[in-house]
Design goal:
Strand order of the largest sheet: 9-10-11-12-24-20-19-16
Helix content: under 10%
CATH architecture of the largest domain: Distorted Sandwich
Shape: globular
Oligomer: single chain
CATH class of the largest domain: Mainly Beta
Number of helices: 1
Strand content: over 45%
């Protein structure tokens, strides 16, 4: 059965956003271009698998819900800055792609394509020319998300990227992961211990959140929730070699994230992507809900 596109509107807390939804059978994927070009709903038989943080989604704050797009970096660079040609440029957590409105390049029954290009605001923190294209497709209960990065400038483009999907869960203690990785830690710096056969995400007493940083991650990453019966699979191509599991206490979500780079990768030679002028890179990943 082929997917079908519908247009809609999200209104809450005084905010109003246009939405685009692809539906196929009993599944529907919604994208909100104005909110960082991100996916904001993925349902199966009317049941929601993504998580929106009430009040945050409607604000101008960094989105901590849905499926934010991380570019040109993941997490926080050392000192909160990138160094380009000896000059320090401040950078927000996870970059800026999730903070800016994206343009709808194409919207049809087969796909939704959004774009974001360099402007005066981005060049203040990232002095490069680029074009990002996000392509969303839906086939049954699997959504595919493809990010293309193109260097539209005259010098080498340095960057990392990733995605930060928030999945709704009944409770953290009900979640079981099926993930194979080389290392698993709570700190990206220093020695990285080998990942256990069974990777877990447990609350640390007194901490505001729980995190696992994974390297050498094999596709797919899977979790099941014995409370709500959900099974979520995140598959990805070879551009993603890192993963993050994250959860905040008292919140009913788990993040299972494919990343291309690490916190300070853009500042470190050989640890980030580089595109020559005119070159492009496309990374594919998908979410399957059951």
């Amino acid at each position: 059965m082929a997917s079908q596109l519908t247009r809609g509107v999200y209104e809450k807390h005084g905010a109003r956003y246009d939405t685009l939804t692809l539906a196929d059978g009993g599944c529907a994927l919604t994208v909100t271009p104005e909110k960082g070009g991100m996916a904001t709903s993925f349902t199966r038989s009317g049941e929601e698998y993504l998580w929106l943080r009430d009040g945050n989604f409607e604000s101008n704050d960094r989105p901590r819900c849905g499926v934010p797009i991380l570019f040109p970096s993941c997490s926080n660079p050392d000192g909160g800055v990138h160094i380009f040609d000896g000059k320090a440029y401040p950078m927000e957590t996870h970059g800026f792609a999730d903070l800016l409105p994206w343009k709808v390049s194409y919207a049809g029954d087969d796909a939704i394509e959004l774009s974001l290009c360099a402007n005066g605001l981005t060049k203040f923190v990232y002095p490069f020319d680029f074009l990002l294209t996000m392509r969303y497709t839906l086939q049954g209960n699997r959504a595919e998300l493809a990010l293309t990065v193109k260097n539209t400038g005259s010098r080498v483009l340095p960057f990392s990227f990733g995605f930060h999907p928030y999945f709704t869960v009944s409770a953290l203690e009900n979640v079981k992961f099926d993930i194979t990785a080389a290392t698993c830690s709570q700190d990206p710096k220093g020695e990285q211990p080998a990942a256990p056969a069974q990777i877990t995400l447990t609350r640390k007493e007194g901490a505001a959140d729980s995190i696992r940083l994974l390297t050498g991650v094999q596709s797919p990453m899977v979790f099941t929730d014995s409370g709500n019966g959900h099974r979520v699979t995140v598959d990805f191509d070879g551009h993603f070699g890192k993963g993050v599991l994250w959860q905040q206490n008292a919140e009913r979500f788990v993040c299972m994230e494919p990343w291309n780079g690490w916190a300070n990768s853009v500042n470190e030679a050989g640890r980030h992507e580089e595109l020559a002028p005119g070159a492009s890179l496309t990374a594919h990943w998908g979410i399957t809900i059951e």
